[in-house]
Design goal:
The protein is of the alpha/beta class. It has a single domain (3-213, 269-303), classed as TIM Barrel, CATH 3.20.20. It has 14 helices and ten strands. Strands 3-4-5-6-7-8-9-10 form an eight-stranded parallel barrel, surrounded by four helices. Helix 3 (58-70) links the parallel strand 4 (47-49) and strand 5 (78-83). It is globular. The protein binds NADPH dihydro-nicotinamide-adenine-dinucleotide phosphate (NDP). The site of NADPH dihydro-nicotinamide-adenine-dinucleotide phosphate has 28 residues, from strand 10 and helix 12.
Length: 327
Amino acid sequence: MQYNNLGKSGLQVSRLSLGSWLTFGKQIADETAAELMQVAYDNGINFFDNAEIYARGKSEEVMGAILKKKGWARDSYIVSSKAFFGIGGELPTQKGLSRKHLVEACEAALKRFGLDYLDLYYCHRPDKQTPIEETVWTMHQLIMQGKILYWGTSEWSAQEIMEAHMFAKQNHLIGPIVEQPEYNMFVRDKVEVEFSQIYKTVGLGTTTWSPLASGILSGKYNSEFPDGTRLGMEGLEWLKERNLTPERIKAVLALTDLAKELGLSLPVMSLAWCLKNPNVSTVILGASKVPQLQENLKALDAQALLTEEIMNRIEAILDNKPAFPAY
Ligand code: NDP
């Protein structure tokens, strides 16, 4: 495993990590979740990603129970949660980034996990109805109280991240160290262009999500629709519609050929492509089966095969390189 600092913080995170969205407490049995965490941990993965909304709190319960059973040293792993969406309550105080929700959500997450503190706590989306000052103060206070160690954002704009940093700096508070954006061969703008300055200025780290675009970049949707996969799950029609487009499948078919030429599976090549970006601190993997995770772990070694020439060929297939604004 390779490790690097999460942004300019001192937190050393494994370049591959494991997330629980749609799988833990939902799609997969708890035994499978436990096996996935064991394989991840045995291979040096030290970061497990979670959120209050995942399976409406159940994902945190399942992960917490596994951590307890495994008995791994608390200083050997990083565990996260995120607040914003709540766990399903529709009342205005049950979601968002107000002090009230963040404090209550953090307390509830700790209880569900059965942990004394979270290593990383994310603001899962920007909250247009709460002043950023209130959110920054609250995250700082949660750190001071020892309930969280670091905090970050997810799907915030560069402007919102900078606002948080400016306020934190002016008031000697601890600002966010990390952003969690979507990043894969089809979704590139934020990571490759929008954040390009703030990697340098504030030392932003990134924990990127959906590296396989929910499985499209495994190649399994290339012909017939496979049974028992995420995009066939009830209630996820929106995700299927968003991800499974004819343009994407056309690109995936060409990428599949290229991966074959390199002697790699498509998911491994797609993950290695994400890892090649030095501004990606860790690629958060998702897996519904243990062999998927075992395969995906090969992405670390596969980076060496993605030479400049191969990266250019991938670029030509994708034909979606985000442009910097022209002046
Ligand atoms: P991916 O895009 O990699 O999708 C993972 C899914 O793809 C798996 O569950 C599996 O689904 C399929 N898959 C994975 N590997 C293989 C393989 N080798 N062969 C075939 N199929 C494979 O990542 P996720 O969308 O799961 O995102 C990863 C993590 O990122 C999440 O768990 C979560 O922690 C985080 N995240 C954060 C978000 C945010 O807003 N901050 C939003 C979304 C995710 P199946 O077998 O069912 O087809």
